[in-house]
């Protein structure tokens, strides 16, 4: 039967190690003494291809899987490309989760997202609010794929006794993030815009929407720590939120990045861009009760990410 606690010697497949979350999780596991981590680039293994995924599982036989591979993006990318966000995510997660059961993986951790919860969920959002109301339209396709992934993990758990667990991270940021302005999330986008405005001596920076929506931001190293904690200690199909417990308005976020960057120009709000959901703050009581809490505050996390971004440009 299934071993519940992950051992240092287990062969762990981290799917999506080139992404923000997967990369941080692979580093966290390696620094925590897990010596047997396998990764695959997209050219080595396209997770959307069922046969290729099954071949990989049959040949390598991982004991543990972290499913951090997904097509992700900010509000504009999600709104513009719902087909790809729905279809690619369904393919990736169906292939990996199905293969995990068929090739006897002992434990699987599926990463979802805070956008799975209803647009007007009571705040802070508890895990129990899943499927109690309609979703935010700008990322409904992505959210539905992620909800299907949770459901599949829970179904495998109930029907076949698989130890497949699911974590719901809030908005993540940190080193290795996507800084492309058309497809990124707000934090890396504003960090880049403000960095460039300061560099070029610009007098203003454009911020999408009204600046009033509220978001919670978790440094990806905290997310990675939480994932390791769940792999080591959590064995229930009930989803677990992973957040920092505090949110800020987009205006406050922009002002904080300006302070960190030393930029004193003006913020100009662009109402032609969507605001998205008004507020998205996760309740992290379940995770805290299990014994885990985040460590990296927003100012420190932004400052570290700002330095990383500036250094990464030096090549
Ligand atoms: P969301 O959390 O799914 O809504 O995704 P985002 O992180 O992309 O956007 C969060 C909020 O930040 C939305 O209200 C955006 O309109 C706002 N925002 C402000 N400026 C920007 C920007 O330059 N890029 C992005 N992606 N969002 C921005």
Topology, pairings included?
Layout: E1 12-15, H1 20-31, E2 37-38, H2 50-60, E3 64-67, H3 75-80, H4 82-102, E4 107-111, H5 140-160, E5 164-169, E6 171-173, H6 186-199, E7 204-208, E8 214-215, E9 217-219, H7 220-233, E10 240-242, E11 248-249, H8 250-261, E12 266-270, E13 279-280, H9 285-290, H10 298-313
Parallel strand pairs: 1-2, 1-3, 3-4, 4-5, 5-10, 6-9, 7-12, 8-13
Antiparallel strand pairs: 8-11
Bound molecules: guanosine-5'-diphosphate.
Give an overview in words.
- The protein is an alpha/beta fold and 315 residues long.
- The chain has 2 domains: 12-174 and 216-246 and 279-296, NAD(P)-binding Rossmann-like Domain (Rossmann fold), CATH 3.40.50.720; 186-212 and 248-278, Alpha-Beta Complex (UDP-galactose 4-epimerase, domain 1), CATH 3.90.25.
- The chain is built from 10 helices and 13 strands.
- It has helices at 20-31, 50-60, 75-80, 82-102, 140-160, 186-199, 220-233, 250-261, 285-290, 298-313; strands at 12-15, 37-38, 64-67, 107-111, 164-169, 171-173, 204-208, 214-215, 217-219, 240-242, 248-249, 266-270, 279-280.
- The protein starts with 11 loop residues before the first strand and ends with a helix.
- The model has no long low-confidence stretch (mean pLDDT 96).
- The structure holds guanosine-5'-diphosphate.
- Guanosine-5'-diphosphate (GDP) binds next to helix 3, helix 6 and strand 7.
